[in-house]
Specification:
heterodimer; A: about 300 residues; eight-stranded parallel sheet; 10 helices; B: about 240 residues; Elongation Factor Tu (Ef-tu), domain 3; 2 domains; six-stranded antiparallel β-barrel; 5 helices
Chain lengths: ~300, ~240
């Protein structure tokens, strides 16, 4: 028997698999095709204080072994999320929920977290300071250590739940940003958000995305994620939620060896709706193959 | 929605760039005409959304145009090869809203989903009239298939090489109808919107990530709120569309 349980900031997950925010809605689209209670947790669609439509379409482009998106944080706003989306999610998922929150000012981050804080099933806040698809917020907080620290400290004021800061790879030194978040009171780091990219259509000779640039994800980015998780693991004491191109159980083990305590699955959900379920089912087999009994024991094993 | 493996039974060229692929597989998730499937292709990260032309128990018919690398790859597939397909996607046409004499207007590769719709309307005792719009006579496909259903078919070609010279809207002008269903390029939709005399339903296209409502990649604004082309669409009612 192998043990797939991991503990993330004091909450136990039956396995480390968490669908990444923005690729899984509020879970119920997937609950139509399989029991999503197999998941360790799920990170819901990035929520902001006010409703957002997001960017114009096309918002999606394809590339080799991956895709770009420029959705731009479309969501119905925190009040509707609480009133309409979370009841539907709770009806199909009993496990701990990761609440993904985005903002355009410190006040917005704080107020969104404050309103969600009463939700008992939310076990962690994942604070997105890394969305590459919005202007004047999102990633601009995550590219500067001081700004990332200020968001962490602001959110800390209104919740006792663990705060996991979701970082962008679109920086020169991700380690300094992770350390700044840790010093400001973050309980964990989640990484990596998408890489800023562009695809040009040769027929129209223009960028495919209406937003021109978008977030690049999929298997092609995995080595970047592994490298950055490895670097941050060496520099911080708080746990890391790893993500970036994960499509199978071997990828999960690789990110955990680099230093991830839990692992998110993103773009793979869009290509293959059963991706998380398949990875969870394959995980014990992959653990046996590589002589792993306790998944928790391999975290950071590559160091 | 269902994810399952389909086997190619036939893959025949209808015109220079349009092919008919008949597949064997589980079609139980398909519940309405105008729905689509999302096809996974070797070496392509995202699936290709393709409208359902027709289906029966165990058999799916897709008519698709070669527009890029993915559909090029599909065009080379032979009988016996397999495809991973998500089926039963989208809302589809709602025939409960139409009257006795609906008009079906297809433009180019927008024609295929109207075929199963036409069969359904006939089965419901309606008397559909079909307008098929193409650029040239060489591009025309499915005309005989519609005629074999026993409905009135008007072809419009932009260069006048077959049927009415001009666009589908030139063919529409003289006709008497009490509802319309359409699928085709957006410039055609805008032309229809200007002259249509009744209510109707439009089937839209957009670049999609997932095809089943998870990624919000294909959202649009409507008078009834934000909708996802892949989930609450692709078919929208005339009254809700913001042009």
């Amino acid at each position: 028997m192998v043990n797939t349980k991991v503990t993330l900031c004091g909450t136990e997950l039956k396995n480390p698999i968490i669908p990444a925010s923005g690729t899984y809605g509020f879970g119920y689209e997937f609950a139509d095709i399989y029991d999503i209670n197999v998941l360790g947790s799920l990170s819901f669609k990035g929520t902001t204080l006010e409703p957002r439509f997001g960017n114009p379409t096309p918002r999606i482009a394809e590339c080799a072994e991956g895709m770009l998106n420029a959705v731009g944080l479309q969501n119905p706003g925190v009040d509707k999320v609480i009133a309409e989306e979370l009841p539907k999610l709770k009806a199909c998922f009993e496990g701990p929920i990761m609440a993904n929150v985005s903002g355009f000012s410190l006040d917005q981050y704080r107020e969104t977290v404050r309103r969600l804080d009463a939700e008992k099933q939310i076990a962690w806040f994942e604070i997105n300071v890394s969305c590459p698809n919005v202007h004047g917020g999102g990633m601009s907080f995550g590219t500067d250590p001081k700004a990332a620290a200020s968001v962490t400290a602001e959110v800390r004021k209104v919740t006792d739940k663990p705060i996991i800061m979701k970082l962008t790879p679109n920086v020169t030194d991700i380690v300094s940003i992770a350390k700044a978040c840790e010093e400001a009171g973050a309980d964990g780091i989640s990484m990596i958000n998408t890489l800023l990219g562009m695809v040009i259509d040769l027929k129209t000779k223009k960028p495919v995305l209406a937003n021109k640039m978008g977030g690049f994800s999929g298997p092609a980015i995995k080595p970047v994620a592994v490298r950055m998780i490895y670097q941050v693991y060496e520099a911080v004491k708080i746990p890391i939620v790893g993500m970036g191109g994960v499509s199978n159980a071997e990828d999960v083990i690789e990110l955990m060896l680099a230093g991830a305590t839990a692992v998110q699955v993103g773009a793979a959900n869009l290509r293959e709706p059963f991706a998380c379920k398949r990875i969870i089912e394959d995980l014990p087999k992959a653990m046996k193959k590589y002589g792993i009994t306790n998944l928790q024991d391999i975290i950071g094993g590559a160091h | 929605m269902k994810q399952s493996i389909f086997t190619v039974k036939e893959n025949t060229r209808l015109t220079d760039t349009v092919l008919r692929m008949v597949l064997a597989g589980d079609t139980s998730a398909i519940t309405a005409t105008g729905q689509f499937v999302n096809v996974l292709l070797e070496g392509k990260y995202l699936r290709r959304p393709i409208s359902v032309c027709d289906w029966a128990e165990g058999e799916l018919t897709l008519i698709y145009k070669v527009v890029g690398g993915g559909t090029e790859q599909m065009s080379k597939m032979q009988a016996g090869e397999e495809l991973d397909i998500l089926s039963g996607l989208g809302n589809g046409y709602n025939t409960a809203k139409c009257g006795e004499r609906p008009l079906l207007i297809g433009g180019g590769v927008g024609v295929p989903p109207l075929y199963a719709l036409c069969k359904k309307l006939i089965a419901e005792g309606k008397d559909p009239h079909v307008i098929l719009g193409f650029n040239t006579a060489q591009e025309v496909f499915l005309k005989q298939d519609f005629e074999a259903l026993g409905v009135k078919v008007t072809v419009a070609t932009a260069d006048g090489s077959m049927g009415v010279k001009g666009f589908v809207t030139d063919a529409m002008k003289e006709l008497d109808y009490d509802y319309f269903f359409t699928c085709g390029p957006e410039p055609m939709f805008k032309a229809i919107e200007k002259i249509a005399k009744t209510s109707g339903q439009y089937s839209f296209e957009e670049r999609m990530g997932c095809g089943f409502g998870a990624c919000m990649g294909c959202s649009c604004k409507t008078k009834y709120g934000n909708k996802r082309i892949c989930k609450e669409g692709p078919v929208m009612e005339r009254e809700e569309i913001i042009w």
